[in-house]
Design goal:
The protein is mainly beta and about 190 residues long. The protein has two domains: about 30 residues; about 150 residues, Beta Barrel (Lipocalin). The chain is about 15% helix and about 50% strand. The protein has one helix and ten strands. Strands 1-2-3-4-5-6-7-8-9-10 form a ten-stranded antiparallel barrel.
Length: about 190
């Protein structure tokens, strides 16, 4: 019977050793850092949501280094995208007898908290591209200023949006030459 107390003592001791080993492993295990919170869009992006939706636009492309004068009709479809960080606009001109090479492009806007500015990129079916920035709405106007490049030409570019109502706006695009700003196009858009 003396073996029974020895067996019980051995079992108790091995349970204690196992508990100590488990505790040591737990203490030695590296602690995983909490996953960083997913970034959130700057609240200023909400100021661009006015543009979200489908717009029908009519206006004129004026004679410029970018092409001859002609009337134009376009559709602009805008939506929030990329987890609501961007407002993306798809601009598609209609091909007509007067406009045999209609413009097709993508305009993307967001807010950069580091610069404290709205920023934009433009890419189109002529190989043209632009980068611009804006201070934001000033009354009923939103102006993006930057550079537009097409082929080997690079020029200062300005897009101005004038809000007429929740359902209507006027847009103009200008380029700068040695003679000052020249309007390239202007159109009225309605939702």
């Amino acid at each position: 019977m003396r073996t029974l107390p020895i067996i019980l003592a051995t079992l108790a001791l091995s349970g204690t050793v196992a508990a100590v080993e488990k505790s040591e492993k737990k203490a030695a295990a590296p602690k995983l850092a909490a996953a960083p919170a997913a970034p959130k869009p700057a609240p200023e992006v909400d100021r661009l949501k006015y543009f979200v939706g489908s717009w029908h636009c009519e206006g004129i492309d004026f004679a410029s280094p970018l092409g001859p004068e002609h009337p134009m009709v376009e559709t602009v479809t805008a939506k929030t995208d990329l987890d609501d960080f961007w407002v993306i606009q798809r601009v598609t001109e209609k091909k007509t007898k007067e406009n045999q090479n209609p413009l097709d492009g993508i305009y993307a806007w967001t807010y950069d908290p580091g610069q404290k500015k709205f920023v934009a990129t433009w890419n189109d079916n002529t190989g043209g591209w632009a980068t611009q920035s804006s201070k934001g709405w000033e009354g009923d106007k939103l102006v993006f200023l930057g550079e537009y490049a097409s082929g080997s030409r690079k020029m200062a570019a300005r897009d101005t949006y004038t809000k007429k109502s929740d359902q209507e706006l006027v847009h103009s695009f200008e380029i700068k030459s040695k003679d000052g700003w020249k309007k390239v196009d202007e159109e009225t858009c309605k939702k």
